[in-house]
Amino acid sequence: MKICVFLSAADLDERYTRPAREFAELLGKGGHTLVWGGSESGLMKVVADGVQASGGRLVGVSVTFLAASAREGADEMVIASDLAERKRLLLEKSDAVVIMVGGTGTLDEATEILELKKHGHTDRPVVLLNTAGFYDGLKTQFRRMEDEGFLPVPLADLVFFAEEPVGALAYLEESQGIE
What predicted TM-score, i.e. pTM, was given to this entire model? Predict the structure, then answer.
């Protein structure tokens, strides 16, 4: 499976890097491909290192203004002209999406895939990995949107909330019929 991971390129502490590394190792050992923002820094590097060290493939999609920090040695690296093209390419190259901890860029990517799903423009499974409760507030907001009629489809049809890396990958593999 080609799994797109939206996540931060920031240097973060162990409560975020440990679960990211664990997910990356599970992904690589499962023979999956990481499709990610292509960065050689921060959490993006942690995940790419873990996938590569565990035997998985790396498909990066960077963007022109970040090309200088693109990872050398990825199996494939594409440089998009802008962020909109980057998001489109990340989704085109993937079968599933995992949203890890991140800032405004990650949130932008996350809401775009959920909007596409809401309108039936993709049926890719989407997992929000709620590491260390990072997305508790967002989960509450999404539930409010659902409860108050802002979502025309059930929240559970848009996104699966996982608290641990093993649950995230298990959900994706099950959704794709992989045992």
Answer: 0.94
